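2024-03-11 09:14:02 INFO worker-7 job=invfold-0412 stage=load source=structure_tokens
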């Protein structure tokens, strides 16, 4: 609920850049002008709220009508297109002048700089990226056929998610160092470095338009999974119909997200709150519930179902009962200073 409130603002940035690229407004901008353009967008509350509203309406419409017919079918076409686009950019990135410095920044360990805050941030990023501790995987998992292998699906999701993250890093950071940008500048890097890259390519406006349109669609697939959790609760537990539940929840989430679009620094603070605290705590409580509240028969029924795939269930249950809760709890306690 909270994550989607600011996620819609960031997705609105991609919609704004799709519109700008389609009108050819990005092609002629140099590095300084691109940085100024993004700062201008991030400071324009009215414009951000308008794009946030547009994105939330699109998300609500899809969830209200159901997911399978539209979003699932489109994902099978558009997500491979985005992957192909990333590989195209990877070829350019790895041949840029900042490739060596960027790869060293991304891949060379610097353990002396790693503290508990960094460990908590990494934990929060893993939870955020894999949609853990927020109910999304539980909700989507409930829609799977019983013959689906849960261990197999979990492994595929973790591997592909990590591979895509590494691929994005390999694309972005060499370009960041090639153009002399600050690598800790956050999500704005996508809206500064990549338009500059496209401007150096043939048919730059077309390439930029297609890329940011695919980013919008990728954001939409994530936003749908977030709203679906809230709507599924309203439908299953409160007895609401899907359409009213979708529009009501979406409207409240939109209103909650307006400060992220209009108050300087608010988005970053909410992002930190959800990623570094709410998700790990949610994951901790889920692990404790599954590990200690459900009995062995219930756990096995959910893990195996009709797939007959019980591989790894014993070590997994050991992790869910002891290792995962302990690890998350220690990191949280370290970060608030209760453990040295």
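2024-03-11 09:14:09 INFO worker-7 stage=emit residues=340
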């Amino acid at each position: 609920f909270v994550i989607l409130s600011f996620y819609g603002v960031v997705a609105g940035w991609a919609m704004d850049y799709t519109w700008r690229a389609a009108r050819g407004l990005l092609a002629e901008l140099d590095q300084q002008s691109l940085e100024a353009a993004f700062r201008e967008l991030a400071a324009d509350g009215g414009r951000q709220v308008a794009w946030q509203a547009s994105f939330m309406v699109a998300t609500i419409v899809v969830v209200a009508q159901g997911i399978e017919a539209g979003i699932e079918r489109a994902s099978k076409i558009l997500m491979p297109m985005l992957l192909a686009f990333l590989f195209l950019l990877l070829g350019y990135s790895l041949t840029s002048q900042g490739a060596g410095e960027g790869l060293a920044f991304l891949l060379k360990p610097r353990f002396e700089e790693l503290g508990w805050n960094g460990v908590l941030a990494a934990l929060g990023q893993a939870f955020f990226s894999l949609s853990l501790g927020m109910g999304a995987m539980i909700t989507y998992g409930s829609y799977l056929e019983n013959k689906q292998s849960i261990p197999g699906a979990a492994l595929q999701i973790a591997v592909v998610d990590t591979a895509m993250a590494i691929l994005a890093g390999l694309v972005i950071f060499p370009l960041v160092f090639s153009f002399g940008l600050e690598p800790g500048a956050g999500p704005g890097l996508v809206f500064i470095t990549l338009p500059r890259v496209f401007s150096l390519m043939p048919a730059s406006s077309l390439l930029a338009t297609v890329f940011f349109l695919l980013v919008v669609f990728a954001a939409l697939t994530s936003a749908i999974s977030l709203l679906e959790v809230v709507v599924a609760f309203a439908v299953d537990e409160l007895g609401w119909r899907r359409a009213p539940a979708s529009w009501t929840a979406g409207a409240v989430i939109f209103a909650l997200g307006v400060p992220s679009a209009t108050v300087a620094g608010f988005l970053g603070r909410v992002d930190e709150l959800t990623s570094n605290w709410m998700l790990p705590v949610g994951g901790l409580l889920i692990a404790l519930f599954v590990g200690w509240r459900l009995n062995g028969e219930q756990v096995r029924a959910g893990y195996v179902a009709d797939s007959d795939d019980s591989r790894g269930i014993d070590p997994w249950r050991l992790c869910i009962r002891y290792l995962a809760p302990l690890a998350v709890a220690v990191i949280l306690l370290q970060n608030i200073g209760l453990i040295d």
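2024-03-11 09:14:09 INFO worker-7 stage=report msg="Residues 17 and 206 are 12 Å apart (CA to CA)."
2024-03-11 09:14:10 INFO worker-7 job finished
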